[in-house]
Structures are given as C-alpha cells and as structure tokens.
Amino acid sequence: MKLMILNLFFISFSVAGFFNESAEIDKAEYLENERLCKLFTKKVNTYEKNMRNDFLAATTLASYKQRKKIFCKKVDESKKEFDSENTIETNVTDNNTSVIPTTEENKTI
Predict the structure, then answer these.
(1) How large a percentage of the chain has pLDDT more than 90?
(2) What is the crossing angle of helices 2-49 and 55-96, to 10°?
(3) Do 70 and 41 form a contact (C-beta atoms < 8 A)?
(4) In what helix (H) or strand (E) does residue 105 lie, and over which residues does it extend?
(5) Number of neighbouring beta carbons within 10 Å of residue 66
(6) Mean pLDDT of 56-61
(7) For residues 61 and 47, is the Cβ–Cβ distance under 8 A?
(8) Dist. CA 2–CA 77, nearest whole Å
(9) Which of 39-43, 85-89, 93-97 has maximum average pLDDT?
(10) How far apart are CA 74 and CA 69, in angstroms?
(11) Count of Cβ atoms closer than 10 Å to residue 44 Cβ
C-alpha cells in the first residue's frame, strides 16, 4: 500500500515537471528567435550602408534579409501565441467575477 501511494506521488510529480519544461523550452526558443531577429535587422542596416556594388554583395544582402524575415516572423507568431494564452486566462478570470443583479433588477425581468 505504501509503495502504491509512493508511486502515485512520483508519477504526479513527474507529469507536473513535464509541462513546466515545455513552457521553458518555448520561452527559450522565443528568446533565441528574438535575439536572431535583432541581429539580422542590425546586419541588414549596416550592410546596406557599407555594401559593395557587385553581385556577391547583393546576394549576401538578400540572404540577410531572408533570415531577418524568417526569425522576425517566428517572433511575431510566438508573441501572438503568448498574447492569446494571456487573453484566455484573463477571460476566464473576468467571467468568474460576474455581477449579481439586485432585487429591483430582478423585478423588472
């Protein structure tokens, strides 16, 4: 009996940690994409100012712009997900704080 209870506690703690790790991984991925977005935005701006006038330089600039677009798009998508999760949580709390009508309002209904 003690072994069964111990196993139940162990399983519940294991599952609880799993969900926290998933959130941490998502946050770490978001931070890395945000860092790369800023990096390539800076690279594009500085490279355009100091760019040579040849085919290889134009290709390099196009590559930087493409990577900037990819990482900044990932950041925007992640922000939308985080915002939607936050709005869902606030909607749940808002719905729980409903106003109970007074007796005068009940008479008119």
Answers:
(1) 45
(2) 140
(3) no
(4) helix 103-108
(5) 11
(6) 95
(7) yes
(8) 47
(9) 39-43
(10) 9
(11) 18
Q: Alpha-carbon distance 77 to 86, whole Å?
A: 14
The three-state DSSP-derived secondary structure of 15-81 is: HHHHHHHHHHHHHHHHHHHHHHHHHHHHHHHHHHHCCCCCHHHHHHHHHHHHHHHHHHHHHHHHHHH
Q: Which band of pLDDT confidence, cut at 50, 70 and 90, is reported for residue 70?
A: very high
CA-to-CA distance for 65 and 63, rounded, in angstroms? 5
Measured in degrees and rounded to the nearest 5, phi and psi for residue 80 equal -65, -40
